[in-house]
Amino acid sequence: MPSLTVGNISTFLHSMRLGGFNLLGSKQAPINRLPNNVLAEIFLYTIVPQDSHSVPVFDEKFMSSTPVISGYNQNTPFPLSQVCRRWRSIIHNTKAMWKSIAILNPNKRHVNRTELWLSFARNHELDIMILQSESPSEEEIEVTLELLHLFGKRLQQWATVEVFFESEAARLLAAQLVELRRSPHSIMRSAIIEIQEPMQADLADNMWRSLNRIDSLKELVWATQQEEITFTPVHVFGPRIEILHLAVPIRIDRFLNTVYASLSLLELRITLEATATFSILPVTLPQLETLEVKSTNGLSAFFDLCTFPSLKSLEIDRINVSDWPSVLWMLRRSGCQVQVFIVRLPHLPAHDLVSWIELDVFQALETFVVAGADVTNEVLSALTWPLSITQPFHKPPSMPKLRHLGLTHCGPTVDSDVIIRMLGSRFWPTLERGIIGQIKKSREELVTAVLTVHTKTTAMTNYEEMIKNCAERTRDWSDRSLIIRQA
């Protein structure tokens, strides 16, 4: 039998559906000649699609009556189990079919189906999602508590938990996490917690303490939609955590006291508040690859104290111009090869941006996005690749690996021809002869570019249209894109 790929299975099921729904359940149907384990694999690929294109459109009416597989896959195994007795038996006995469950806007109709869902999952690990509406009714709050009690009977099976609900449900979850942290057999890898009401400090502290002591936890997202919730407790994370997102602001000194032991951290997204002078030892996170920092004020103290030798992606939101020397020193001290750099830095002078483009720490960049800085002809010229790198020039060309470019605030003095010259020098291939006469690429080609200009000229519009046409007609160019917006 040929290998079971997603494409083969999709084609096979489509051919079966052409004969009508009854044919699928018929004993004479070709699909029913397959052994049970093969049918189970087909059902898994059908109900739990492996690519985003298979995810159905959000159906609020359908999801109000039944749990679904996840917030990104509004499928359920129940309809397929109603085709025939054999299919029902296969689906009910395939535990992996029931390992993920999502309940959105909980109501009483969800309870019985959730009990059934969990009974079919048996002892399989569970991925759980409960998302209340932004203004939950009394029924929604009551049902959420009932669902949490159902899931609480299977604490040892929790693998991932994602919740968005009010404080009463948060208090029950906190109690369950206390119980879970005491278990030596916890398998929970991910916790995504968003509370939509002001949370009392003792409740937040209790939940945070429990999460920090779950040895299996690899990912934590701690978020809120309420500005009033400004409390992030301080409990030191161990070396196991790999992904940490803190959307609630936390003081720089408190954060560094929390994370200094997280030597396995790979991804960090935080919102920081500057503090008065404090004394704290420097922090090195040797495995960190992705860093996203938002700030309500200065960030220099954070970058002065941190070293990230493996950093590949750096995104900074709302940084002051005065903090930039600390960022640069961190990059040089770390000795990292940053590939993605995204920054929002209002009112950065053009000559400073030119110096950024020429920095040695940015020459491995594949993505360069700057919002708020003044973009002039000089900036665009610094990004323009020369016609031939063998021709004499004063400085080596900058950012030879650049593939994605974003610039806002291209001012009124910017010349349309300078923009087009820069884009042309990056989008189209530049070839040079090698040492023995062979042709070689001297740089990467630009894949996407987004520019915001003061005035969008006809020449810019025509060039944008040309890139679009080339992307539609040229092989290997389908992912190319140029967007020029007028401010």
Textual characterization of the structure:
With 487 residues, the chain is of the alpha/beta class. The protein has 16 helices and 18 strands. Strands 1-2-3-4-5-6-7-9-11-12-13-14-17-18 form a 14-stranded parallel sheet. The protein has a two-stranded parallel ribbon with strand order 8-10. Strands 15-16 form a two-stranded antiparallel sheet. Helix 6 runs parallel beside helix 7 (138-152), helix 7 runs parallel beside helix 8 (167-181) and helix 8 (167-181) runs parallel beside helix 9 (201-212). The protein is globular, with a radius of gyration of 27 Å.
Which stretches are poorly predicted, pLDDT < 50 over at least 5 residues?
Answer: 1-10, 12-23, 52-56, 435-439
Strand portion: 15-25%
Residue-averaged pLDDT: 83
Biggest β-sheet strands, sense, barrel = 14 strands, parallel
| Gap between N and C termini | 58 Å
- The SS-based structural class is alpha/beta
> What's the alpha carbon Rg, rounded to whole Å?
27 Å
What strand order characterises the main sheet? 1-2-3-4-5-6-7-9-11-12-13-14-17-18
Helix content: 25-40%
Shape: globular
**What is the count of β-strands?**
18
Helix tally?
Answer: 16
